[in-house]
Write a structure and sequence with these properties.
Elements lengths: L6 H5 L2 H8 L3 H23 L18 H14 L3 H8 L3 H18 L3 H8 L5 H7 L4 E10 L6 H6 L1 E2 L4 E11 L4 E4 L3 E2 L4 H7 L9 E3 L7 H4 L5 E2 L21 H25 L2 H4 L9 H17 L5
Parallel strand pairs: 1-6, 6-7
Antiparallel strand pairs: 1-3, 2-3, 3-4, 3-5
Helix pairs in contact: 3-6, 4-6, 5-6, 6-14
């Protein structure tokens, strides 16, 4: 098969390159350089796995170079194209595309500044200066995001994964970001019916005490359940209670409304980060891959967004 697209052709058109991969040409080159440096060790680790049935070195060699395989990987994550289309573009069989992407994922996860790596660094912070470097303004913001999945065939899963908010079947992930949008913590995915606050109680980051966490109204009750947590939650109108038909909840005071508005203007950074993540359609569209593979995918996408925010692959 004749390739219709390659790195040389696409990199000559920076705007198109960014649209199809989600990164600038220079950013791609940085990822490629780091991946190339780690490639030999990653391959040795992959070939030495215990469940391997053939000796290392057996099998057909890769048709595409590492650079071209990395390009197909980035395009797959950004536009979520089918393997058949990518195979046509790069002149290989679609089965090769699937295998190449699967084999590159551990390598890319090790190269990128994933939330797991960032959170590991957070737990090592000691001095106030180190904390301020990681958390400018000493603030962090938490929110949950959902992604649609195909309608489950299992009746129980249809019930547990149905999101009343989105009116479709979803999975949910919780993110914590700093004031720059850097993702410092990411949970494993849960069923779409799980409430945001229930997810927080099950899995939440342990941030330095000096860092103030901002929440939305989905986390009402966090102050009562976590009295030692340095956090802020918007004011909410108090329900007059059952049986009081036609009785409206009292309005918030002007000071409370100002407080809510200021908090919302600060928390918008986590919404911006969610938007950046969803631009990679493997997270922004209907998730077609296997559910057990979901957390690997979201970790890599989060790592790509973190890389673009940090401007470097090192933390």
């Amino acid at each position: 098969m004749v390739a219709l697209l390659d790195y040389k052709t696409l990199s000559s058109k920076p705007s198109l390159f960014r649209s199809l991969t989600g990164v600038e040409v220079s950013e791609f080159d940085s990822i490629y350089a780091k991946a190339q440096a780690n490639y030999k060790d990653a391959e040795e680790k992959r070939l030495a796995r215990k469940d391997r049935k053939r000796k290392a070195g057996a099998g057909h060699p890769f048709t595409l170079s590492l650079q071209e395989r990395l390009l197909t990987f980035m395009m797959y994550y950004k536009v979520y194209a089918t393997s058949a289309l990518l195979g046509l573009l790069f002149g290989v069989d679609q089965s090769n595309i699937v295998k190449d992407i699967h084999k590159l994922e551990p390598l890319l996860k090790g190269v990128l500044p994933t939330p797991q790596k960032v959170y590991g660094r957070v737990k090592q912070l000691q001095t106030l200066q180190e904390i301020q470097t990681m958390f400018p303004e000493l603030k962090a913001f938490t929110d949950a995001t959902e992604q649609q999945i195909p309608r489950p065939q299992n009746k129980l899963k249809r019930k547990t994964h149905y999101s009343g908010k989105k009116k479709r079947h979803t999975v949910k992930t919780q993110l914590t970001v700093n004031s720059k949008g850097l993702i410092v913590h990411e949970t494993r995915h849960v069923k779409g019916s799980t409430h945001d606050y229930a997810l927080f109680k099950r899995s939440h980051p342990g941030l330095p005490e000096a860092v103030k966490q901002g929440f939305d109204l989905g986390y009402v009750g966090v102050k009562a359940d976590f009295p030692g947590l340095n956090c802020v939650v918007p004011f909410k109108k108090k329900n007059p209670g059952r049986g009081k038909v036609g009785v409206r909840a009292p309005e918030l005071s002007p000071e409370q409304r100002v407080f809510n508005k200021e908090l919302a203007s600060e928390r918008v950074v986590v919404e911006h980060t969610n938007s950046r993540l969803k631009k990679f359609l493997i997270w922004g569209g209907v998730f077609r891959n296997r559910p057990k593979h979901y957390d690997v995918v979201t970790a890599i996408v989060s790592g790509l967004v973190n890389f673009r925010i940090l401007g470097t692959l090192t933390i």
